[in-house]
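Dear colleague,

Thank you for sharing your sequence with our group. We've completed the structure prediction you requested, and as agreed, I am returning the results in plain text so they can be pasted directly into your records. Please verify that the sequence below matches your submission; if there's any discrepancy, let me know and we will rerun it promptly.
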Amino acid sequence: MNTKLVESLVQVINSLSSEEKKLLEEKLKLQSDWEKTLERIEARRKKIHARRAGKPFKPSVTEIIHQMREERDEQLMQACCSQDEEQ
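Please find the predicted structure tokens below.
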């Protein structure tokens, strides 16, 4: 363990103003919330995997995302071309 680093951090934290300490606490809470969210996602993934008995989705999630991107690209191209025609 890097005790010198920890001691330096404690000194820095103790030297913060109350506003700075509050901001630090908020930032640390956001990290904690993110970790909890990731844990919930992982737990849900495991439940889905167990319920599907390990069978993959068909089509795969990757294929679905790729298809949706292609559809959105087409929509954007059509919107762009229709604006060019109006001008």
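Summary note from our side: Helices lie at 3-14, 18-51, 61-86.

Kind regards,
the structure core
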